[in-house]
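Before a colleague's protein record goes any further, I have to sign it off. What it holds is a sequence and that sequence's fold in token form. My question to you is simply how this chain folds and whether the tokens agree. Thanks in advance; the entry in question is below:
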Amino acid sequence: MGQMHECWKLFHYLGFPVNPINPGSDNTIRKKSIHMLRSLLFSVALIPSVLFSQPEYHIYAIKFASPGRRPLSELASGGPQKDSVNLFFMTWLITGNNGKKILVDAGFTRDLDWASQIPWFTRPDSALSEMNIKPEEISDIILTHPHADHINGISLFPKAHIWIQKEDYGYFVGQAWQTNGQNGGFEKKDVNTIVKQNMAGMVTLVDGDNQELFPGITVYTGSRHTYNSQFVLVQTGSDKVVIASDNIWVYYNLDHLISSPYMAGTFDTVAYVRSMQRMKTLASDVKYIIPGHDSDIFKRFPLIKPDVVQIR
């Protein structure tokens, strides 16, 4: 009987109609109260799934420049001298039903001395117009590494918050410019830009491997394409997609588990291969491991705009 009274006290506390003198005397009220409580409990049970459900993401590769064909031997250690691959410069757009519009890498502008030699070029913010997205709509940029062809374009997206590995940032703005530092592919103007962004509170320094930046979007380290480059795993819904960027230059690296050349493409050739092996355990299918510069991406995934494919 005591438990019954406690139950009715709970009903009363929750605002259900209860006869305070004899709560069990009115069967109609009691039945209604039980029905209301069941409905409430069912609604409460649904709250976690609504509040904490995984966002749904769509991923697009957007081509903004092409340097033409390059020998495989420049991209893969011991690769065949006679074979070549057509290269694209790309950014990767992630759109979510959580309102996020995220770029993985920001591309580059014509302000770089060597960029004038690129025969086919569209500025990365202009390339986004194919998706009807304005530069100021980009909420975040995940920088896989600070080579100029990936970082130089960050100023094109004025409201974007930057995510870069802490150790990669530290090396880029500091040790790379010391005696015996490795600064190939880096530009001093990009150092100035990201330092200013950092001082403006627009940069988060990601501290290490296996860090979830947003629900369903996690970054991993290990390849050492630069001092501590990162790649991105995106849970799109049913699929897990690895945006490898230059942690895999082209499909040949992945298909043969061959590193890019030492120092030209990685600080550690063993780590580069080990990282590719790890990617195969993270992606839901090997076809969802996306290299940084291989034009074949545009043959393997559906073209939805002249220079855009959707990774699906």
In short: The chain has nine helices and 14 strands. The two ends are 60 Å apart (CA to CA). Confidence is low (pLDDT under 50) at residues 10-16, 44-51. The first strand starts at residue 57 and ends at 71.
